[in-house]
Amino acid sequence: MNRFPKVKKYYTLNTERELEIVDNNIVDKLNELISSLDNNKEVYLTTRGDNRGNLEIHNEFFTSEYIKSFFGVGLKSKSAIKIPRNEEFEHTIVEEKTQVVSELKKVIEYCNERIDKKPESHNIQGRVSDSFIESLDNYSVEELNKWKIFFLSFLHNDGSLNEFKSSSPFLSLTQGWKKYRTARNFSLWRNKYGRGIIYLYALSKHDNNYFVTKEFTKKLKEFDIVWYEDNHKEIMLLNGMFPHYLLGIFEVTKTSTPKFILNPELYKLLENSEEFDFRGGLSINQDNFLEMAQKLGYKRFFYTYGNGSTFITDINGDNIGETISIV
């Protein structure tokens, strides 16, 4: 717990959906929960730094009205805001083999271009071989889709292809004992507002929609590609955060942590001394989900079924597609 930021004031949303200061006994229970999750071998307790892009969105984020919608919807990847311009960047399952091979080859071409353009000083080596590309026709459609999501994660991890960055289906999280410091650095880097945001998220290892970058880098070595070290202990989360596992949000500056806003459903759980279900998450009231999602600017949303399949659709419920599962 000595790595947890020293927070000036803790808040949640009350029944009128206004920010309200949290009592110390609830803070103590929160600290116990965070310590427990940090030591739970079945959970990645993760953070993500953010500065909300432009001034209008940045200032609006700290209002209770925005926070209310945010805890009902969660944080989504850029693919939910900006519809990808190129089909090869879509992350839904393609059933037609010819189509998925064509899209996959294009994605791999982008990956090789990113490797080739790295400065010598970065010590990046290798490329996806022509022999592997030629062998794609021998794979099943399911295997081809798996390779596509893998190489899309490569483009996300590289982060320098602008046309992909604006529509990536992934969110970057960080784990490990430096996660708060790392997230703070990202939230305040090139931040002209002087304050940023850190999301605190409990990711169950039983989820099937994330890449651990350390393992991803090992996989690249099978292609004789020497890639960057995973200095930030990154996790690439597909589609985005469910509100069910979002514990709360820090407001941070360069010198302090003025505020932590506790997910109101987690507040209720702690108030009643109930146990947090790290697999199932919190019980979130999403009766007004579409209204909240539109308020936050999302054009698409995703949902899961009990069998673990995840589907994505536009805000009107059209163009439904099953997203490629990572495992």
- State the low-pLDDT regions, or none: none
**Class inferred from helices and paired strands:** alpha+beta
- Alpha carbon gyration radius: 20 Å
The rough form would be described as globular
Largest sheet, in brief, is: 6 strands, mixed
Mean pLDDT: 91
| Helical amount | 25-40%
State the strand order across the main sheet.
2-1-9-8-5-3
Record field, number of beta strands = 12
Terminal residue distance: 32 Å
Succession of helices and strands: EEHEHHHHHHEHEEHEEEHHEEE
Q: Can you count the helices?
A: 11
Strand content: 15-25%
The gist of it:
By secondary structure, the protein is α+β, with helices and mostly antiparallel strands. The protein has helices spanning 24-38, 55-61, 64-73, 97-116, 130-134, 141-158, 162-165, 179-188, 213-221, 264-271, 289-295; strands at 7-13, 19-21, 43-50, 170-174, 196-204, 210-212, 234-238, 246-252, 257-262, 300-304, 310-314, 321-322. It is globular.
Please give the structural blueprint.
Blueprint: E1 7-13, E2 19-21, H1 24-38, E3 43-50, H2 55-61, H3 64-73, H4 97-116, H5 130-134, H6 141-158, H7 162-165, E4 170-174, H8 179-188, E5 196-204, E6 210-212, H9 213-221, E7 234-238, E8 246-252, E9 257-262, H10 264-271, H11 289-295, E10 300-304, E11 310-314, E12 321-322
Parallel strand pairs: 1-9
Antiparallel strand pairs: 1-2, 3-5, 4-7, 5-8, 6-7, 8-9, 10-11, 11-12
